[in-house]
Design goal:
- This protein is of the alpha/beta class.
- It has a single domain, classed as Aldolase class I (TIM Barrel, Alpha-Beta Barrel), CATH 3.20.20.
- It has eleven helices and 16 strands.
- An eight-stranded parallel β-sheet has the order 3-16-15-10-9-8-7-4.
- α6 links the parallel β9 and β10.
- α7 runs parallel beside α8.
- The chain is globular.
- It binds flavin mononucleotide.
- Flavin mononucleotide binds next to β6 and α9.
C-alpha cells in the first residue's frame, strides 16, 4: 500500500502534517511533531515582528468537540524562522513556513526570510478569521488573493501554498491563487464564530469573536475541497476537523492529496497520526487502492 505523495513538489512519506498554529513556533515543538509521526511540519503563522496575541480567555472547548480560539496570531516574528527550519532539516523533515501580514510588503518580508532559510514551501495565511487586518479580510477578496500570491511569487524560488478560509467567494479566490502562481491550496482555516455566556450575558473571549475548528467544521471543509477540486483539480491540502481515518478518507475522495490536522493534535493525542494511517491502509485494502493517488477526487469524478 503506497501512501507516499507529493504536494507542491515536496515528497511526503504519507499525506499527514500538522495544521498551522498547532505547535510549530519553537524548536521543541518541531521535535514533538516529529515524535507524533507527521510527514511534514507547518509552522505557526509568522509575521514580520513578534506578536503578543490577545489576553486570555483565548480558547473555548465546546461539548461537541469543537474549539473556538482567538489566539491573535501570537508568534515570535521572522527572526525565529531559520532556527525552526534548521531544526526540521536536522531531522530530514520537510517544513512549510506559514506567513502572515497586513499588506503585500509584510508578506514579502517574511516569505524572503523563509526562502533564504531553506524552507521547503511557504503557506500564505489568507484566512485568519479573528485578527484584524490579517487573513480573512484579504482572503475573501479574490483580487487581493491574486495580488498577495503574485507578489510573494515574484520574490521566492520555493513553492507557494495559499491557505484560504470559508467565504462565498472561496472557489473564485482559489482560482485567483492558482493563476497567481500557487502550486497548492490549503482548504480551510477556522470559521468566524461567537460564544456568549448566558449567565454573565457577555461574549466569553476577550476578542469577542473566535475561529471555530474541530469536528463541527469538517463537513463544511469537505464541501469546499469538493467544489474547488471539481472546478480546477488543483493540488489541495484538506484541513478541518480531521480526527479519524474516516475524516481523512473523506477529504481524499473529495479531492485532497495531503491533509493537515489541528484541533485533534492539540491535546497531545500522540496516537492520532498513527491510527489515521492505519485506518487509511485498511480502507485502501478494502477498496483495492494500491496507491493513495488512485483515491484522490474519486467522488468528484464519479
Ligand atoms: C489554537 C489554534 C491556533 C491556530 N493558529 C493558526 C495560525 O497561526 N495560522 C493558520 O493558518 N491557522 C491557524 N489555525 C487554524 C488551523 O491551522 C486549521 O486551519 C483549523 O484549526 C482547522 O483544522 P482543525 O479542525 O483540524 O483544527 C489555528 C487553529 C487553532 C485551533
Amino acid at each position: 500500500m503506497n501512501l507516499e505523495i507529493s504536494i507542491a513538489g515536496i515528497k511526503l512519506r504519507h499525506p499527514l502534517m500538522n495544521a498551522s498554529g498547532i505547535l510549530g513556533y519553537a524548536r521543541e515543538h518541531i521535535l514533538k511533531l516529529i515524535r507524533y509521526g507527521v510527514a511534514a511540519i507547518v509552522t505557526k503563522t509568522i509575521t514580520p515582528k513578534p506578536k503578543r496575541g490577545y489576553d486570555p480567555p483565548i480558547l473555548i472547548e465546546l461539548p461537541n468537540g469543537g474549539l473556538i480560539n482567538a489566539v491573535g496570531l501570537e508568534n515570535p516574528g521572522k527572526e525565529a524562522i531559520p532556527e525552526l527550519v534548521n531544526e526540521a532539516k536536522r531531522h530530514y523533515m520537510p517544513i512549510l513556513v506559514s506567513i502572515g501580514g497586513v499588506n503585500e510588503q509584510e508578506f514579502i518580508e517574511v516569505a524572503s526570510v523563509a526562502n533564504d532559510a531553506g524552507a521547503d514551501a511557504i503557506e500564505i495565511n489568507l484566512s485568519c478569521p479573528h485578527t484584524k487586518g490579517y487573513g480573512i479580510e484579504i482572503g475573501t477578496d479574490p483580487h487581493n488573493v491574486y495580488n498577495v500570491v503574485k507578489s510573494v511569487a515574484s520574490v521566492v524560488s520555493i513553492p507557494i501554498i495559499a491557505k484560504l478560509g470559508l467565504s462565498d467567494k472561496v472557489v473564485e479566490a482559489a482560482g485567483k491563487a492558482i493563476e497567481a502562481g500557487a502550486k497548492a491550496l490549503t482548504l480551510i482555516n477556522t470559521i468566524k464564530s461567537l460564544y456568549i455566556d448566558v449567565y454573565t450575558l457577555k461574549p466569553v473571549l476577550t476578542n469577542i469573536f473566535g475561529g471555530l475548528s474541530g469536528p463541527p467544521i469538517h463537513p463544511i471543509a469537505v464541501r469546499v475541497v469538493y467544489e474547488v477540486y471539481k472546478e480546477f483539480q488543483p493540488e489541495i491540502i484538506g484541513c478541518g476537523g480531521i480526527s479519524s481515518w474516516i475524516d481523512a478518507a473523506e477529504f481524499i475522495i473529495a479531492g485532497a492529496r495531503a491533509l493537515q490536522i489541528g484541533t485533534a493534535l492539540r491535546g497531545g493525542s500522540q496516537n492520532v497520526i498513527v491510527s489515521i494511517l492505519e485506518g487509511l491502509r485498511n480502507w485502501m485494502l478494502i477498496h483495492g487502492f494500491r496507491d493513495i493517488r488512485e483515491a484522490i477526487g474519486i467522488s468528484v469524478r464519479g
